[in-house]
Amino acid sequence: MSLPPTSGADASSTVVIYSGGMDSYTVLHRAIKEGLEVHALSFDYGQRHAKELDIAKAVCKQHNIPHQVVDIRAIHGLIDNSALTNPDISMPEGDYAADNLPTTVVPNRNMILLSLAIAKAVNIGAERVDYGAHGGDHILYPDCRPEFVHAMNQVAGIANFEPITLHAPYLASSKADILRDGLAMGLNYRDTWTCYEGRPLACGKCGSCRERLAAFAANNTSDPLAYESTPAQVTG
């Protein structure tokens, strides 16, 4: 089921959930291009790829974007049954598939993060919350599917005295589409981190790396990031 993304055309300010990855990086700059007052919000939930937070901090500092990193590591014991939050669980390699997907699911992650972002929006008088759910994630993660996004948008409209619009501009787009949009904006994806591992170089083997590399291949361009191992068979 494919539904159109929620809209927030009348908003003058927005809270962007900004992980430091290429999807949220594009969403962030798209909101800036709209002329909105942008407040970037990142979360430290004990993810093993916390390097993404350093990338997010650097980008916001470079562009003078108000940025808050919220430490929610206290909930780590509630969400540690995932390879993304538990280093004792092996990180699966290869393309996303039914046999490796479940280990990369962080329980209820987007509902948690969206709830906190909505609170910040109400607190500072922003009218919107942006996040980077996209079409390529529909089969992978329930909390990136249109049904979830639209239900959360309804909740955001009634949970407080001030209704907040949840905006997912790439809800019906692929990773390659997002990259194409960002390249058209002149964005430099060297300023992003996608790998599920937090090592100095991207691994090139996890599902997230492979999806990223496939997006660059689909756009007939090279990924500016360096990799420990670049798979020979990655096509868009």
What features would you describe in this structure?
Helices cover 32% and strands 10% of the residues. The chain is built from six helices and five strands. The protein has helices at residues 22-33, 51-63, 109-124, 146-158, 175-184, 207-218; strands at 13-17, 37-44, 67-71, 128-130, 165-167. It has a five-stranded parallel beta sheet, sandwiched between helices. Helix 1 (22-33) links the parallel strand 1 and strand 2 (37-44). Helix 1 (22-33) packs across helix 5 and helix 5 (175-184) crosses helix 6 (207-218). The longest helix is centred in the middle third of the chain and has 16 residues, at 109-124. The two termini are 23 Å apart. Mean pLDDT is 89; it is low at 1-10. Catalyzes the ATP-dependent conversion of 7-carboxy-7-deazaguanine (CDG) to 7-cyano-7-deazaguanine (preQ(0)). InterPro entries: QueC (IPR018317), Rossmann-like_a/b/a_fold (IPR014729). This is 7-cyano-7-deazaguanine synthase.
Shape: globular
Oligomer: single chain
* Largest sheet entry: 5 strands, parallel
Amino- and carboxy-terminal Cα gap? 23 Å
Strand content: 5-15%
Organism: Vreelandella alkaliphila
Cofactor: Zn(2+)
Catalytic activity: 7-carboxy-7-carbaguanine + NH4(+) + 2 ATP = 7-cyano-7-carbaguanine + 2 AMP + 2 diphosphate + 2 H(+)
Pfam families: QueC (PF06508)
